[in-house]
Design goal:
12 helices, binds D-malate, single chain, alpha/beta, 255 residues, seven-stranded mixed β-sheet
């Protein structure tokens, strides 16, 4: 299998953090946070299989495969117990990777994400999304879905940034995008695992997130023994893009 595309700052002797992006984005959603943290940490991001510059192949993916990809990156880069920070789909991947190999990582940051799998309604929405991409094209799907992840304030005040994010997402290969949708639809529950996590966990959520709401994320944090829960102001589901300063500051304090 072809290797994934990795984007890392200059290696230094600082603590490594691996950032995993959400859907339908790529490593670029973490760039501002990484730049804010680069003097304190060795920041690494990558494009999840099927998105950005990573290989698409047959589009037959699972969250399990994505978790194996993450563990392989840690081994290939010979990283010593990195922290991992996953946004939304990246959080699904991080939780599954922890379940598979918790001794690989030192700390976990879960941002705008959840441990539960899709319910029937959620699965039906995934099928409708794939149908939309097939019938009307990726651009149409992305132009409808991406704005729903951002707060109205951000959409009004930073429309250039929103349009940039949309145009990055439009450039993905539709096969890879649909593969990610199917992987998320088929993901299984990691909730039973939460109370077995033994390392420190930071749970971050945008105050206006309607996809992984503050109430649901607080419930998730309460199931984890050593967790901190923080609400990010002026942000919805895309807290690392909408308010990178606060997200970086919380990560810096936590680590
Ligand atoms: C994401 O931001 O990664 C997605 O919205 C997550 C999802 O659709 O479940």
């Amino acid at each position: 299998m072809e290797k994934l595309k990795i984007f890392a700052h200059q290696p230094n002797n600082k603590k490594p953090i691996i950032f995993i992006h959400g859907f339908p984005y790529d490593h670029r959603m973490w760039i501002k946070v990484m730049n804010l943290l680069q003097s304190n940490f060795y920041c690494i991001a990558y494009d999840v299989r099927g998105l950005g510059e990573s290989p698409v192949e047959d589009g037959n993916y699972s969250i399990d495969l994505f978790a194996d990809d993450l563990i392989n990156i840690v081994e290939d880069m010979k990283l010593d117990k990195p922290a991992i920070c996953g946004h939304s789909m990246g959080g699904y991947i991080a939780l599954r990777a922890f379940e598979k190999s918790d001794s690989t990582f030192s700390n976990l940051i879960l941002c705008d994400t959840k441990s539960e799998p899709d319910n029937d309604e959620g699965k039906a929405k995934r099928d409708a999304a794939i149908k939309k991409i097939d019938d009307e094209g990726l651009e149409k799907y992305v132009r409808e879905f991406v704005p729903s992840c951002f707060s109205n304030n951000f959409k009004n005040e930073k429309s250039d940034e929103l349009n940039n994010t949309i145009s990055f997402a439009e450039q993905h290969n539709p096969v890879g995008v649909k593969g990610c949708i199917t992987a998320m639809k088929n993901r299984t529950d990691t909730t039973p695992y939460l109370n077995r996590i033994k390392i420190p966990v930071l749970v971050l959520v945008g105050e206006e997130d309607t996809i992984s709401t503050p109430i649901k994320m607080k419930e998730m944090a309460e199931k984890i023994k050593e967790s901190k829960f923080k609400i990010i102001s002026n942000a919805a589901h895309m807290a690392p893009v909408e308010n990178p300063e606060s997200v970086a500051e919380e990560i810096r304090k936590f680590l």
